[in-house]
Amino acid sequence: IRAIADALDARAPKEPDNLRSIIREWRSANPDRSSSPEWDRLADTTKKVWGNALDAIEAKWGDVPLAVFNDPRMKARIVRWRDSRRSTPRSADIGVTVLRALLRFGELRGKVHNNAASGIPSIYRGGDRAEIIWTEDEIAAFSAKAAELGLSHAADGLRLAATTGLRREDLVSLTWDHVSAFGIRKKAMKRSRGKRRFATVPTLPALDELLDELRDRHRAIGVQTVLVDAKGNSWTPDRLTKAVGKVRDAVGFVHVDQETGQRRTKHLHDARGTYATRLMTTSDLTDQDLAMIMGWSPEEVSRIRNHYVDQGAIIMALGERIGRGGVNR
Known about the structure:
Helix content is 53%, strand content 5%. The chain is built from 15 helices and 5 strands.
């Protein structure tokens, strides 16, 4: 009986104990089995970016036994892997971020006991874009060049971003149902501190004027999005980014760091900083107010307020408020 039991046990399929096993548990490759709740909660854009990183991780570490990741020396190997990809620093950092999230998932499932990817610093230094904004003159020049290239609808996206502060995914998914006489209220596509918060944009004269203009754009049957392309169809995030990038490159807009001379390309997302700058320098809004408008958490507003707005602009705005008697003495 014991021999029969041993033989049956030997024939039973063994659960793999390599990194690929928790990759498959986190993000299912089997159409008949769903992915984990942790993976399903990710935004579609995050799944796309992280999915590419996960493929690279599987190619590199998929066959490595999970026990190896419990060895403290594994951290140094991950750092060497990150450094070997330093020609694309952002991708290298994303790879470490995804590996860290994967191992944290493995910890929760009792598969690994040490997150060897934790505490590894980033090597990409272009991530802090707080000081990069689109100026009014640049937006005007961008719109003129877009019209010249037949891409005026791309300029609509940049102008709406600078007037609402909405993220790219929220810009392309914004419909007229989200717009009321009092402003825009839309559930943000991106999570902030694990929650999808509402982005609430008050109706201001500049926004009213732009929305009136956008209402007259040709739309294909059934299209209800505020932004549309030249054919009247809704934009996808990637298509809008590429269209904005094409006009930007034609104009030649870059941001030059005044201290280092480093030149960095301006992105559609930088228009969000333009909107935040306008609010922080022309209003008395609190962190809570800004959080509601921008779709951030109040803690995030407090943390980045001094990064999105030049300190000189803050001081000048405060001086003007003091002059008007708007600050309690």
